[in-house]
Backbone:
């Protein structure tokens, strides 16, 4: 901290004997105990807080006890770039099942402690965690990103995440990492099974034969298939 040496307007023979230096993060400087120095410069004895707004002023004291205060100035501390703060995904909910083809993507805004820094958001979506595609790269959208028609298909599981990026390239991925959801707009019937045994038209010598058929699959990701077997005598 440096300041000009004042001249006492009452008597130029008087001299400045000390300075009271006030520094605080509150602009009122109320309750601040000043440090006293005899030169027109000052270095704090401990580090100031990072990413903080400080206010300061100096009072000059002459050899007759007169005190004159300077104007109050302010400054911001920023010795290194800080990454964006943690933030969370909002919608779709993790593991949700959706019946629409244009799901909106919503997330909380991150903050950045660095003065005048700004944040962009990179939204990625895909069917596999290791091969997501960027579908949005831009500023925070309070109304969510909803230009998604044509990006999803029925009966499919999707993964998504959002990365906050500041002007210096520092990044923060949403809390909890990847989230997933399923698109399932309507219930689909299982794919038909194929009978395996006993063979059609065969003669069974065992009166308690085992019956086999191929396993049926269901296009709906969370559905489970059960079977009902019917048989009846011929003739």
Residues:
């Amino acid at each position: 901290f440096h300041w000009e040496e004042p001249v006492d307007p009452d008597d130029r023979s008087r001299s400045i004997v000390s300075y009271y230096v006030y520094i605080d993060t509150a602009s009122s400087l109320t309750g601040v105990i000043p440090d006293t120095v005899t030169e027109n410069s000052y270095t704090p004895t401990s580090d100031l807080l990072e990413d903080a707004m400080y206010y300061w002023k100096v009072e000059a004291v002459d050899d007759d006890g007169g005190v004159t205060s300077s104007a109050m100035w302010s400054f911001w501390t920023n010795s290194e770039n800080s990454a964006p703060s943690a933030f969370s995904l909002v919608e779709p909910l993790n593991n949700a099942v959706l019946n629409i083809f244009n799901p909106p993507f919503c997330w909380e805004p991150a903050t950045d402690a660095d003065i005048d820094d700004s944040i962009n958001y990179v939204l990625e979506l895909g069917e596999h965690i290791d091969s997501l595609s960027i579908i949005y790269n831009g500023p925070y959208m309070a109304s969510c990103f909803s230009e998604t028609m044509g990006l999803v298909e029925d009966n499919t599981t999707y993964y998504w995440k959002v990365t906050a990026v500041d002007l210096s390239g520092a990044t923060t991925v949403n809390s909890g990492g990847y989230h997933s959801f399923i698109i399932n707009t309507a219930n689909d019937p299982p794919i038909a099974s194929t009978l395996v045994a006993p063979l059609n038209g065969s003669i069974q010598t065992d009166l308690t034969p085992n019956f086999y058929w191929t396993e049926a699959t269901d296009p709906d990701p969370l559905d489970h298939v059960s079977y009902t077997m019917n048989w009846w005598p011929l003739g």
